[in-house]
Write a structure and sequence with these properties.
6-stranded mixed β-sheet, about 20% strand, 7 helices, two-stranded antiparallel ribbon, alpha/beta, Rossmann fold, globular
């Protein structure tokens, strides 16, 4: 991607972790920040590069439906994804499953999906999300993982966007 690239960040977030990463990316790249819920097929035609971010709830990306609906507008663009979730980098296989089951296959490249660590503040969750998290912890067989699901966690840090920035600002090779 080069200086003439016209790019934007599109995101979907429930409690703000993904929004925070999206805002940092928009600030650094000086690209517009678009909420997926308000971004139409026609809006996407203005850009040739999109960085698309979403969090994960019970294995599903919040942006999954939007991706499916807008897939035809995305096929001929440079797309990068960032997925904000609780699944750590050490669980690579599970991370890959999240990508494979949520992103249309034609949009997944060899190195265009990034995973960023998220945030859970239990007191701020909706009744439904608190309940789902409690159920998840109860069904979790690994006691350490179950305990971690009963506590707040905040791993949202600006430094985590560095690989995405690097990828987005690396000129494409001209063959
Ligand atoms: C009810 C609930 C379910 C979740 N399910 C998953 C999940 O299936 N996989 C995962 O990796 N993270 C899961 N998470 C973690 C969220 O993806 C993480 O907290 C993320 O930072 C939320 O970002 P947001 O505030 O932008 O929505 C879950 C969190 C909650 C509260």
């Amino acid at each position: 991607m080069n200086a003439s690239t016209k790019g934007a960040i599109v995101y979907c977030s429930r409690y703000g972790a993904t929004r925070q990463y999206a805002e940092w990316l928009a600030e650094e790249l000086k690209w517009p920040l678009l909420r997926a819920e308000k971004t139409t097929y026609e809006d996407l035609l203005l850009y040739d590069t999109l960085i698309i971010g979403s969090s994960v709830y019970i294995g599903k990306l919040l942006i999954k439906g939007w991706l499916k609906a807008n897939n035809p507008a995305l096929g001929d663009k440079n797309v990068l994804f960032f997925i904000v979730c609780g699944t750590p980098a050490s669980e690579r296989e599970q991370q890959q499953t999240i990508a494979r089951t949520n992103i249309p296959h034609d949009l997944i490249g060899p190195d265009n999906v990034f995973f960023l660590p998220g945030r859970v503040v239990i007191s701020k969750l909706s009744w439904r999300d608190k309940f789902m998290l409690k159920m998840g912890a109860r069904l979790q067989k690994d006691p350490a993982k179950a305990a971690s699901m009963r506590k707040d966690v905040d791993n949202v840090r600006k430094e985590h966007i560095a690989p995405i920035l690097q990828h987005a600002t690396t000129p494409l090779e001209v063959i």
